[in-house]
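Sequence design from tokenized structure. All designs in this work follow the same two-part layout: the structure record, then the generated sequence. An example of the structure record is given first.
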């Protein structure tokens, strides 16, 4: 089982709440050149969904993928 995080860049306003709320923020989240956030490395994510709850614009979707 693995985690996939999708950020809707059209919605993201760069507020940084995902980055600061996530227990592994600096490892997982990064800001792109447009000031939007993206998932740099999902391997430390433990699917707590804190980021989803903190995002004020519902830009984050987490999917659980079953390994083949
Ligand atoms: S689900 Fe939890 S660990 Fe994963 S990116 Fe969001 S806040 Fe971080
Ligand atoms: S919390 Fe949501 S709106 Fe704020 S930077 Fe993260 S993805 Fe973008």
């Amino acid at each position: 089982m693995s985690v996939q995080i999708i950020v809707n860049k059209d919605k993201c306003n760069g507020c940084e709440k995902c980055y600061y709320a996530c227990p592994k923020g600096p490892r997982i989240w990064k800001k792109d050149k447009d000031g939007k956030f993206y998932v740099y490395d999902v391997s430390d994510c433990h699917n707590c969904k804190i980021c989803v709850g903190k995002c004020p614009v519902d830009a984050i979707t987490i999917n659980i993928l079953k390994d083949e």
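The chain is about 20% helix and 25% strand. We note this feature because it recurs in several other targets discussed in the main text.
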